[in-house]
Design a protein that fits this description.
The protein has a seven-stranded mixed beta sheet with strand order 6-2-1-7-8-10-9. It folds into four domains: 7-70, Chemotaxis receptor methyltransferase CheR, N-terminal domain (Chemotaxis Receptor Methyltransferase Cher, domain 1); 83-278, Vaccinia Virus protein VP39 (Rossmann fold, 3-Layer(aba) Sandwich); 306-409, PAS domain (Beta-Lactamase, 2-Layer Sandwich), CATH 3.30.450.20; 508-615, PAS domain (Beta-Lactamase, 2-Layer Sandwich). α1 (7-21) packs parallel to α3 (49-58). It has 20 helices and 20 strands. It is of the alpha+beta class and 616 residues long. The protein has helices at 7-21, 30-43, 49-58, 62-70, 81-97, 116-129, 131-137, 147-155, 168-174, 186-189, 222-235, 275-284, 298-306, 326-332, 355-365, 411-422, 427-510, 529-535, 539-542, 560-568; strands spanning 105-110, 138-144, 157-159, 175-178, 181-184, 192-196, 208-213, 236-244, 257-261, 266-269, 311-315, 321-324, 369-378, 382-394, 400-409, 514-519, 524-527, 573-581, 587-598, 604-615. The longest helix is centred in the C-terminal third of the chain and has 84 residues, at 427-510.
């Protein structure tokens, strides 16, 4: 395959795989898919995607080989040991500390391949809890889309090379030798459950305390990654942890997960208690009810709320912070994690103004409550002046849905009023300065926004490059293993060939007849010991030389015409008797027997000359 497949033909191939075998690769990164599918097309010597579809229809045994190539099952026990040590010493104890003695512990390894990480989790939990508690309380789920890999995982049998990464103490404790392999203990294996699961299409397993998905997200594009992470968020309990691979960062999903240890890629679930965020997460996860377009302008209203130039927050009837726009986060120091918290637990509830009393008045009087020129003291003795307005949001029938609170920065206006009070004459100058300051502030804000967007773009590109490099590294590792297997086979073939050559040499050395093998041009390829004894020339002196150029006691020139005629004819056997002088100078009669040397396909490759002394 000389060129990358065209987009249209490649998409048609992916659609064929989805319809015939149920594997949906449309959400995978195209660069990785191009390489992996192209490798299989090269292996079967197919030039185009359409021809490869025809090949799959005729050769159904190709499907497993293709899927094994695309789904790079590179895994190991305790892969990235420092990260596993952190999970063992920090995360597992936290999970156990919040559990009652009888509560179940549920762990999920998504994209588990041949099961090494699943049994790694089982060993860590058994070490922390003890064997008896592990058997009674723990369920470890291992899922993957590759049925062949899952079959290997269910057997729980691994080679000596595969278990080398396990510390000796754990290996001796949790694995039982079985011939040349090691098998995970059967009494603990009953707590481990394997099953096929597609992260893109299938519903997540719920109520998980720890979810491990290492170096699987990097194969998907950004949209599918977001959908999978939303399902992971749904799968975890509120205090659950997500453990990813070293190529995955989650920098753009702060509303779902917050870093616990970024170096080792351990994240904690961000609980979403308000309706807005819960609906958004369910929509990303593919929930049909949440994504029903009953209100086509809902997303527009959310976006418009975020770009309102005034700082604005929304509080629900129960006193919980329901929404915060971008201006409020910037001005008041609120964080996305504050959404869903009780307003009374936040500093904004009492500073710079007591909001709870204003909210009570808004509910009681059923009209907006406004407080003007509220002084807010900032660091560095700076004072900000705000106009605060509390408005009641009402639904059908006058039912109160909550309150909207806006904070308008009137610091500059306050300064202008003071300037006007001091001097009407300076009014115009103060206004122009204010206008200039506003324009500079807007320009600076636009520049900063542009810089932030550029940094986000650069970060996404770096993240994508990192994932691509990790993917290529795993591909190289898989290729290296294939090369090692091929080298071992070549080494065995070479040893067999050496044995065969030695065997042939020993036979030729024991034959008491001179044996000379020549090609069609009468160039010598073989010269045995008896030939050396007859004519006095060693093999290394004649091999590669023309038989007709050799100065020996045999009249070799007389062989030119008979041998050439023999090669051109149909016979397979011819015998000549020639007068000759051996290496001792003795005149002899030499019988020269010619037989054909045939190639593997029956073509005439040369002649085998058998030389025997028959008398003087």
């Amino acid at each position: 395959m000389t060129d990358a497949p065209s987009d249209q033909a490649f998409e048609a191939l992916l659609e064929y795989l989805r319809q015939t075998r149920g594997f949906d690769f449309t959400g995978y990164k195209r660069s990785s898919l191009f390489r992996r599918v192209g490798k299989r097309m090269q292996d079967v010597r197919v030039e185009s995607c359409s021809d490869y579809v025809d090949y799959l229809e005729v050769h159904p045994e190709e499907f497993p080989l293709l899927f094994n190539t695309i789904l790079i099952n590179v895994t190991a026990f305790f892969r990235d040991p420092p990260a596993w040590e952190y999970v063992s010493q920090e995360i597992v104890p936290q999970i156990m500390a919040r559990k009652r003695a009888i509560e179940p512990v549920r762990v999920w390894s998504a994209g588990c391949a041949s099961g090494e990480e699943v049994y790694t989790l089982a060993m860590l939990l058994a070490e922390n809890m003890g064997d008896e508690a592990f058997r009674q309380r723990v369920k470890v789920y291992g899922t993957d889309v590759d049925e062949e890999a899952l079959g290997q995982a269910r057997h729980a049998s691994y080679s000596a090379q595969q278990v080398e990464a396990i510390p000796a103490g754990l290996r001796d404790k949790y694995f039982e030798p079985a011939g040349t392999r090691y098998v995970f203990r059967g009494d603990l294996r009953r707590s481990v459950i394997f099953g096929r699961h597609d992260l893109v299409q299938d519903a997540p397993i719920s109520r998980m305390d720890l979810l491990v998905c290492r170096n699987a997200l990097m194969y998907f594009n950004a949209e599918i990654q977001g959908r999978i992470l939303s399902r992971f968020h749904f799968a975890l309990v509120d205090a659950g942890f997500l453990f990813l691979g070293k190529a995955e960062m989650l920098l753009l999903h702060a509303k779902l997960f917050t870093p616990v240890n970024l170096k080792h890629r351990v994240f904690a679930k961000v609980p979403q208690v308000n309706l807005r965020d819960r609906m958004a997460i369910l929509a990303q996860a593919g929930d049909a009810e949440a994504t029903e377009p009953s209100d086509p302008y809902a997303r527009l209203r959310e976006a418009a709320f975020d770009v309102i130039p005034l700082a604005q927050i929304v509080v629900d009837p129960n006193g919980y912070l329901a929404q915060v726009n971008e201006q409020a986060r910037s001005m008041l120091g609120l964080l996305p994690q504050d959404v869903g918290r009780p307003l009374q637990d936040l500093e904004i509830s009492c500073r710079p103004v007591e909001l709870r009393s204003l909210i009570e008045r808004a509910y009681a009087e059923r009209h907006p409550i406004k407080v003007t020129d509220v002084a807010r003291h900032l660091p560095g003795d700076e004072v900000q002046h705000l106009d605060v307005q509390v408005g009641l949001a009402q639904g059908s029938g006058g039912r109160a849905l909550g309150v909207s609170i806006t904070f308008r920065d009137v610091t500059q206006e306050h300064g202008l009023r003071e300037e006007l009070a001091r001097s009407n004459q300076e009014r115009e100058t103060a206004y122009e300065e204010l206008q200039s300051a506003n324009e500079e502030l807007e320009t600076t804000n636009e520049e900063l926004q542009s810089t932030v967007e550029e940094l986000q773009t650069t970060n996404e590109e770096l993240q994508s490059s990192n994932e691509e490099m990790e993917t290529m590294n795993e591909e190289l590792q898989a290729t290296n293993e294939e090369l090692q297997t091929m080298n071992a086979e070549l080494r065995r073939n070479s040893e067999d060939l050496d044995q065969m050559n030695n065997f042939l040499q020993s036979i030729l050395a024991s034959v008491r007849i001179g044996v000379v093998v020549v090609d069609r041009n009468l160039e010598v390829h073989l010269w045995n010991d008896r030939a050396e004894d007859l004519w006095g020339l060693k093999a290394d002196e004649v091999v590669g030389q023309s038989l007709l150029d050799l100065d020996i006691g045999l009249p070799v020139e007389t062989l030119r015409e008979p041998v050439s005629t023999f090669l051109a004819g149909n016979g397979k056997y011819e015998e000549l008797v020639l007068n000759a002088v051996n290496r001792r100078g003795k005149s002899i009669r030499c019988r020269v027997t010619c037989t054909l040397r045939l190639g593997t396909t029956g073509e005439r490759r040369g002649v085998v000359l058998l030389m025997d002394e028959v008398g003087p």
